[in-house]
Amino acid sequence: MDTYAKKLPITELIPDLDSYMVSMGYSESTVGNFRKAWRALKNHALRNGIEYLTKDAAYGLLKEHYNIDPLELHLGEYHSLIRRAMMLLLEYQISGCISGGIQRSVYVIPPQFEDICDQYLLYLKNDKMLKDTSIKNHKKSLAQALCFFAGHGITNLSDIDTEAMNLYLVSFAGLSKSYISNMINILKRFFEFAMREKPDMPPISFPSVSVYKDRKIPEYYSAEEIKLILAAIDRANPLGKRDYAMILLAAKYGMRIGDIRQLKLSEIDFVGNTINIVQQKTCKPLTQPLLPDVGWALIDYLQYGRPKSESPFVFLRLVTPYEKLGDNDFVNIT
């Protein structure tokens, strides 16, 4: 138990975390939902003679009692909450705090790290030309990590070494590989920047995470599969006409969903047979030839499927108000 910040038996660890979360401002309803899972874990531990929490014990309960795969990417709301309850206990035992315990609307960087973080976020905006949404994601991830280090008494960025970083990464036990990989990449880039700005920074080793191993969704669709997908769309109605054109843009050009949602009428040149966009993610201009099947699909949608609207965007919702698709919309959204 020497590697744990909280050397407490499960029967003491649970109420200790409970009190900690209440002091952090978690609502009674949220903590109440977690308590049900913790009570089941305590009973499971007592029945099996388990005194201290281990990853095996937590994972065992998730699998045996709740039929939850700890590494499953697509859990429902209830099962996600149960898994989160177990991961919170593991994280609290290992680190003595909850790195993700930050209000979602405000991501606060600890004061001792503010200057270097402000420099880095400005670098992402001006040099890397990242979008505001990407910068916000970086800030959130940095805030979570740096709050963890601040909670462990670290007041200087130069005092964060590989050992401290590994302790933080261990707190992600049970989260998806894609989440862990994304967090590692964000931290790695930040510390590379920090080492350029602060020569006294020690080098930090970051583990590599294979995101594609045991992946449950295909990395790409074959040409035959794309044909089947397109053939399954009912193009006799406005929804089908819109979905068909959107999927065709993704299949033919590899366009990102954000670029498809943001596509404007002015960016389609039917005379010159080109599509001219500025990519959202990279801010780089891109010109593609307007392929015949894509052109006819767009014309079919614009003439017979798109609602009458003054909106400059190509793809609109099909119910009033006729606005462009939102950030969470793709196809089959009305």
How would you describe the overall organization of this protein?
By secondary structure, the chain is mainly α. The chain has 3 domains: 1-98; 101-216, DNA polymerase, domain 1 (Orthogonal Bundle), CATH 1.10.150; 223-304, hpI Integrase, Chain A. 51% of the residues lie in helices and 4% in strands. The protein has a 3-stranded antiparallel sheet, with no helix packed on it. A hairpin with a 6-residue loop joins strand 2 (274-278) and strand 3.
Features:
globular; mainly alpha; 334 residues; DNA polymerase, domain 1; hpI Integrase, Chain A; three-stranded antiparallel sheet; 3 domains; 3 strands
Draw up the topology in text:
Elements: H1 10-23, H2 28-47, H3 55-64, H4 77-95, H5 114-126, H6 132-151, H7 162-170, H8 177-197, H9 223-231, H10 238-253, H11 257-261, E1 268-269, E2 274-278, E3 285-289, H12 292-304
Antiparallel strand pairs: 1-2, 2-3
Helix pairs in contact: 1-2, 2-4, 3-4, 5-6, 6-8, 10-12
Short summary of the structure?
With 334 residues, the protein is mainly α.
Number of separate structural domains: 3
Helical stretch count? 12
What is the distance, rounded to the nearest whole angstrom, between the alpha carbons of the first and last residues? 54 Å
Order of SSEs, N→C?
HHHHHHHHHHHEEEH
Q: Kindly state the percentage of residues in helix.
A: 40-55%
Got a strand count? 3
CATH architecture of the largest domain: Orthogonal Bundle
Q: From the alpha-carbon coordinates, what is the Rg to the nearest angstrom? A: 25 Å
Structural class: mainly alpha
What name is given to the CATH topology of the largest domain? DNA polymerase, domain 1
Q: Tell me the quaternary state.
A: single chain
Low-confidence stretches: 101-106, 213-219
Apparent shape? globular
Query: What characterizes the major β-sheet?
Result: 3 strands, antiparallel
The overall pLDDT average reads: 81
CATH class of the largest domain: Mainly Alpha
Beta-strand percent range: under 5%
Which strand order spans the largest sheet, edge to edge or round the barrel?
1-2-3
